[in-house]
Write a structure and sequence with these properties.
homodimer, 644 residues, alpha/beta, Amino acid/polyamine transporter I, Rossmann fold, 2 domains, two-stranded antiparallel ribbon, 21 helices
């Protein structure tokens, strides 16, 4: 204990903390001190696993979702799957290059929220924040649902257990994340590389067999689940399929969000990881789409396209098939980790800026933002339950938020380059969160970011247009709704800060009169304890009893006289049997004659039963009085507990 | 205001009450004073309408439910409907005669609960109470569902709205009952007599046409909803149908429950009402069952038997048909009134005896037990929603509780006569609630009550046996569960009374030391107000700040020095960023050295935002501390509100 003595104020520093309960320790690990924070960084190989799992895992469903739309026009339309995939890969390359620039410009973390806020202002930041929060929840719901779909492809008898299974998996990821980022990193490295190896191997085997002419088509493919009126192939249908396929790009912003978790030199390491991720993602996506068309795979809720490719490549459901599916399930489940890392971090940034409740910036005992993690798990579980763990039903809601935030982030970067280009060569300027410094070649960089932003803006519009009635409207309403909530909270905190400020505040008058009122329902041990406390606070104590039953009142009067040492008792007649209203009316009468230097303390005896639910058996007078008197200045409601 | 002065205690009597809000006045009527209570009685004609509506209305579904069971063995089995009805009417006559004796023995209200408690003890009373509470809820659910079924018989397009319609109707009855018993009496007299007239008229028309040979059979009867494997006629099936038909007898106990609402001479008026009710009920039930078989009515969810009889009697769906159905709907809806009168009354009796929470004995501003009324409406709405307003699905749960309570009540009466028979001729004895006085002819009365009890006991067993798997098991589990809850609550109150008693209690030592701790999250206007209040309570004030962020702590220290007039500040270092745990640990250290004549008051500054939901944006420190410190004696947690 350190004692400081400054002027006439004594300040004691003291370290005091209870040990956490053993079960909490076992579940989420021992507490980490704030000072241990900077050690929680990861190297490039683990970072690739942690930050790329979301992006890579989307290859498990992106091809299938393209085909599910094309199949509306019959199996012939499935031919367009591969050209659409190529278009998406080109878009991916543009966005990856654009983000590589962001990673260098924002070495401390350049998520869409921060880039939009620093360069485009509060409204853009709020839109980006709302879009991303929505999409993180959907990432968890879609990835888990797709992971469970892989399991039910191999074991169809598990199909009816898909929802509870999904929720158990979400709970597992939640616990892993509550332990903190580094440990979750090590856990996630294994499944990511496992998937990479198994999927590459499957694609190579299938390719070799395809070019040697021994691959053939899917044996016993699932039935095509056709809507009754088959559609014709229209530009709308192609755009719709393209929009569904862009889900392959979800997750690539994870690297720029999480730069702080990289080892030094952060930006360089993050940039290299990003390029690697783009390369691997493109290769897998192209391979899967190519093979899916060649083997005549059919999109189905019952069996995933990955399962169809694997059993065609390996000639049936042997152990290689099972391992491939297991690795796909594993990466899909682990993919949610990205969302679990980013959602709480983004929430905390929003909380710091005053757009979300302060509590979200409170780090748990393991240095992670525990409340955000738990909140994400609950919201994703609700979504999975509502949509019955169907990827195809979730997809129309998904990705629109991601593309909106891509657009804002890259737009912000482009504007930033324009500002940098208009600085004089050695000028530096601090603008909001970041430092602007002249750089040669800004025109070139502005074009890359600007073109990326333009492309993703187009995709966002395509998405909104083609998927509006399938479910995108929900998200298009939700984002402005969230922005309104952010603004409301922001105004609340701003307003409060002003009203609580000590600037121009004069200290209130010293309180010299204390009036104490004790609520007396009956005279028993708890009442006497409360009266004793009341008498210690003031000499001006009044007991107040609301009389409903004259017999009861007679008894109260009698016992009060015996035990109260002459304290005044007011009996409030309640001809209409009301309990609280007469008491409130009396208190308000007393308040009406309160002087500025006077406080009124209402004391309510409250017995504390051994079990909390026993409270339901008693009137909660203190709660009710406090609630009704909250807006009255100069009054304090205190319940004096009496342990039964 | 009256001032009394006894010894050294001043007692003030005072009448203080706020006016109720205008909308509450408009919805439930102006407040009634307790003194107005005795005026709330009703004459025989209104009493018949109020207390018989439940019993009479059951004729609207009893016949149909007999037929629904018999139809499992094909339309030929429907022949047994009338013989079964005769058997039920005989049973009814026995029970009515038995209850007529109860009405005279208990002029202040002789519900099954009271009769069982006075004569058979607490356990029987609890079983009777549990059975009746369960059945009142089911009465509301069944009656409303059947009423809505009459509407959907006439207007099949309303079928899909049956659940919301039911809930709206329950809400309406709830409001009427919140206004108080007399007004609801007048409202309910009209529909009860309306039903009586219309149903009698329909039966007479049909009978005249039947005996003149012009009645014929139902045109276009609904299809028989057969279970695939048709059953054969077995004694089990007949017993099962009989058990379903006994629902006709539900509601006859209402008169003995509600004797206090009758005008003087209460017992005589109630007895006459009871006999009239039995006569009318038997006549209607026999008439409906006879006609239903003769016209070849088919039990169906789509069209009620009443609807089939009415459109056969009136040759189609003309205005007489519609008026008959309207009157049936009206009495069914109004029938729930009996449950709404009895459920809250029974709850209050259970509360007085300490089997249910005290709050249920709190009368509302209109002299009715408002909480019981609202509770019943909520529970019945949940049942209706769960069973989709299907009478046939609800029936297996229904009536078993009624028959169990019939058995206990009449058994109690029989035992009472036995005790009376063993008194000496002029002896009087007070036993529990009632006075025993020798009566000639007690043997005769004992036989009537005993035989009634025996018959209803048999029916209860038949019910439990034939309907066990259809749903009766739910009730057979629920009743013991409720009895356990009653016992738990009873023990809690008994226990508490002992522990709060002032017998052998010595007054606690006068408090001479007061220590005050102010929780300081940040130093702002609210903190200063709280500090000001703290300083008024004691000279021993300590501010406590939990330090998570050193920069923030520096600021708190600085501002504290400036504003605190030299009050001590303790800084608790929290290396693991915990907020509450260090504070709690500190408080427990302080408590460890507390002296018996010392209290510790924890003061938490709490700002009161304008809108209650803004509280979600702030840590609820006081709540959390109070919760954690409830079990510690000598400590009081107070939040000092600061109005923003």
């Amino acid at each position: 204990m350190i004692i400081e003595k400054k002027s006439d104020t004594t300040i004691l520093h003291r370290t005091a903390e209870d040990a956490p309960s053993w079960w909490k320790n076992w579940l989420v690990g021992s507490r980490l001190a704030t000072a241990e924070s900077s050690h929680q960084t990861i190297n490039k190989k683990i970072a690739l696993a942690v930050f790329a799992s979301d992006a890579l895992s989307s290859t498990a469903y992106a091809t299938q979702e393209i085909m599910a739309i094309l199949a509306l026009a019959g199996t012939a339309a499935l031919f367009y799957t591969f050209p659409i995939t190529i278009a998406i890969v080109i878009l991916l390359a543009i966005v990856i290059l654009s983000y590589e620039q962001t990673v260098h410009a924002y070495p401390n973390g350049g998520g869409s929220f921060i880039v939009a806020r620093d360069n485009l202002g509060n409204l853009a930041a709020q839109i980006a924040g709302a879009s991303l929060l929505t999409d993180y929840i959907l990432t968890v719901a879609v990835s888990i649902s797709s992971g469970v779909a892989q399991i039910t492809s191999a074991y169809p008898e598990m199909f009816e257990w898909r929802v509870p299974l999904s929720i158990v998996l979400i709970g597992f990821i939640m616990l892993v994340n509550l332990r903190g980022v580094k440990e979750s990193g090590s856990i996630f490295a294994v499944p990511s590389y496992f998937f990479l190896v198994m999927m590459s191997f499957t694609i190579i085997v299938a390719m070799v067999r395809y070019f040697s002419g021994t691959l053939g088509t899917v044996p016993n493919p699932p039935a095509l689940e056709l809507i009754h009126t088959a559609q014709v192939i229209t530009p709308f249908l192609i755009l719709h399929a393209f929009a569904s396929g862009t889900t392959a790009m979800t997750g690539i912003e994870a690297v720029s969000d999480g730069i702080q978790a990289f080892q030094q030199p952060r930006s360089r390491n993050a940039g290299i990881t990003l390029l690697w991720m783009g390369f691997i993602l493109s290769t897998l996506f192209l391979g899967i789409s190519f093979l899916a068309v060649q083997i005549g795979a059919i999109p189905s809720e019952g069996e995933t396209v990955i399962s169809q490719i694997a059993r065609t490549a390996y000639n049936g459901q042997g152990w290689l098939y099972l391992i491939t599916l297991a690795s796909t399930t594993a990466i899909l489940i682990m993919a949610t980790n990205t969302a679990f890392a980013d959602f709480p971090r983004l929430s905390s940034w929003l909380a710091i800026d005053g757009f979300l409740p302060r509590q979200l910036n409170y780090r748990g005992s393991r240095l992670v933002f525990s409340r955000g993690i738990v909140g994400l798990a609950i919201l994703a579980s609700l979504l999975v339950t509502y949509f019955q763990a169907s990827v195809t039903k979730l997809i129309p809601l998904y990705a629109i938020g991601v593309f909106l935030s891509f657009t804002l982030s890259q737009g912000g970067m482009a504007y930033r380059w324009w500002k940098i280009g208009h600085l004089s060569p050695n000028e530096e300027r601090q603008e909001r969160g970041s430092m602007l410094r002249y750089e040669a070649g800004w025109q070139y960089k502005m074009v890359i970011n600007g073109f990326g932003s333009f492309c993703t803006a187009i995709v966002t519009l395509v998405f909104a247009y083609t998927k509006f009635w399938d479910g995108a409207w929900v998200v298009l309403l939700l984002i402005p709704a969230l922005v309104s909530v952010f603004s409301y909270i922001y105004r609340h905190y701003q307003n409060l800060r002003g009203r609580l400020s000590l600037k121009d505040y004069t200290k209130p008058r010293r309180i010299t009169r204390r009036r104490v009122i004790v609520a007396v329902a009956g005279v028993h041990r708890g009442t006497i304890e409360a009266l004793n406390y009341a008498q210690s606070l003031s000499d001006d104590v009044t007991g107040v009893h609301v009389s409903i039953d004259p017999v009861e009142t007679e008894k109260v009067q009698h016992t009060w006289e015996e035990w109260s040492d002459g304290t005044r008792l007011v009996i409030l007649e309640s001809p209409h049997r009301l309990l609280y209203e007469p008491l409130l009316a009396y208190i308000k009468d007393v308040l009406a004659v309160r002087q500025p230097n006077e406080t009124i303390t209402i004391i309510v005896p409250q017995f504390v039963p051994k079990r909390w639910w026993d409270n339901l058996l008693h009137h909660q007078t203190a709660l009710r009085l406090r609630w009704n008197l909250l807006s009255e200045p100069g009054i304090v409601v205190t319940d004096v507990p009496y342990q039964v």
